[in-house]
Amino acid sequence: MELIDLRSDTVTKPSAGMRAAIAEAVVGDDVYGDDPTVNSLEQRVADLFGKEAAVFTPTGSLANQLGIRTLVAPGEELLCEANSHIARAELGAAAVFSGITTRTWRDERGLLDHSNALSFARPNSGPYLVSTTAIAIENTHNFGGGTVQSLSEIQRLHAAVQGQGIAMHLDGARIWNAHVASGVALKEYGRYFETISVCLSKGLGAPVGSLMISTKERAAKARVWRKRYGAGMRQIGLLAAAGHYALDNNIPLLANDHDNAKKLAKACQEAQATVVNPDFVDTNIVGLDLAGAKLSAAEFASNAKSEGLLISALGPNYVRLVTHMDITPPEIQRASEILQSLLQRAFVA
Ligand SMILES: *Cc1c(COP(=O)(O)O)cnc(C)c1O
To answer: How far is the CA of 196 from the centre of ligand 1 (A)?
Structure first.
């Protein structure tokens, strides 16, 4: 049986066109700055966000960590939302590698309320308290359910921290999804952040690749730290070519993923109204709240697997479905049927 894999949008496999682009890539040794395909990708992505420079990284976590470490010195503080990837899914990297302390605020569905973030900010705290020197925003917000941040909340936060010695970092692993869903230009997002991370390996379908985007000066610093962390890579024009292909072809396809996620959410809501509100599904992630069900999220995911559907159990009562470019319309239909029947059984009186 062919499995339908909705665990993540990282599971996409390079298409024939992308593989051809990889095969034809002109390459060089990137540690010497000699790989023309990497150099052009870095400049292209920096330009997309209206920034000076970018550094290619193997993962989005490293792109986040390089950004943060150029903004926050050891012993200083980064603020982020409690369910953000930086706080929960990077295994304490900011503390382990950069001596950064982190405090978190809570936003409903991860949706930024600038006043929540500001209520925690303590810039220039002298010798008494930890000084806040950066705030990270995640857009879209993964564990918030793929939610798109409000531009005006970002603008308000940005305005409030001007002159305070607080910089802003964007975890833009799925900024492409936010851009397609909101119509906000990538350059507009770029205006409010000193550093930005983006992933090519999620919905855009590249096998590997993220970038940290910022000023020339910060990118140069990040390049040193990337090498120190052991991620100085050689003929990675092979990977950068996949990135160019993804940017050339795959951004508009994200709208299909968003439609598919909405369909899945509607099907689930039909079967059990309490698990999801389709109006809250902004992009390609559907979170199902199984509170009140007769089984745990892990059991629900395991039952789905027996039916040929792979999904992620991310909390005791929370499962996540992520749509992506390798999912076909018949698979969405089939996944909807499987989920409806599982939900009916899980909630039967
Ligand atoms: C996937 C993801 C990342 C980066 O993950 P890697 O697996 O390290 O590439 C960063 N932030 C968010 C919000 C993500 O979803």
So the answer is: 13
The reply to whether 265 falls in a domain is yes
Q: Total domain count for the chain?
A: 2
Give the separation between CA 46 and CA 249, rounded to whole angstroms. 18
Same domain, 113 and 242: yes
Atom 8 of ligand 1: nearest residue by CA position: 61
Within the chain, which residues score under 70 in pLDDT?
A: 1, 349
CA of 296 to the centre of ligand 1 (A): 25
- Interatomic CA distance for residues 130 and 122, integer angstroms: 7
Cβ–ligand 1 distance for 59 under 6 Å, the answer yes
The domain boundary residue, chosen from 199, 215, 249 = 249
For residues 226 and 260, state if they share a domain: no
Q: Is 138 in the pocket of ligand 1 (CB under 6 A)?
A: yes
Mutate to test the pocket of ligand 1, among 66, 137, 142, 320 (most ligand atoms within 8 A of CB): 142
Expressed in angstroms and rounded, the spacing between residue 89 Cα and the centre of ligand 1 is 8
Which atom of ligand 1 is closest in space to residue 201's alpha carbon? 9
Please write down the HEC assignment for all residues of 252-307. CCHHHHHHHHHHHHHHHHHHCCCCCCHHHCCCCEEEEECCCCCCCHHHHHHHHHHC
pLDDT digits (tens, 9 = 90+) for 247-304: 999 999 999 999 999 999 999 999 999 999 999 999 999 999 999 999 999 999 999 9
